[in-house]
Prior knowledge:
There is one protein chain. By secondary structure, the chain is of the alpha+beta class. It has 2 domains: 72 residues, no CATH class; 89 residues. Helix content is 25%, strand content 29%. It is built from 4 helices and 7 strands. The strands form 2 sheets. A 4-stranded antiparallel sheet has the order 5-6-4-7. A 3-stranded antiparallel sheet has the order 1-2-3.
Amino acid sequence: MGEDRITTPIRIKYIPVGTKFTVVDEYLYYSWRIKGPTNIHILILKDDSGNLSEVSELAFELDFVDERFIGRTLIKEEVFALKNIYVLQENQNLKLAFCIAQWLEEPGDLSDFVSDFQLGKEMAFRPESLICNNGYEITFKTTEAYLTSIYYFQDWGLIGEWKEFNK
């Protein structure tokens, strides 16, 4: 991980539909990522099993409270991700190809990504793929590893397209 980073990156967690939460705390998170410098109000949630999760107040309101978003049509990327989550939960692994964008001259290093998020036991990869010329064959063993990858790959310079092995 880079010397300029003061915290470990946050991993993304899958929370099943219908999980009941209680807001137990909150904090402000300073970010440069969304429309320049801004403070993001983060809620800390606890489920009935005592598991803690963090979510921005805006995401919480849109995903759990705002009726305009209930029953909305999912976009292609969301449908792809949900389908893969179900496959992963059913089979205990998910094998995908990640094809690096052809225009990208210096892609990020997937080994650094795996190390930074401590995903070595939760995902494996080969720096080649039968599906694309420049890419990886990646096997995910946990939903969290998959979600963390699809959320953060761009930030680590891994820009491209996910492809299935079997349709």
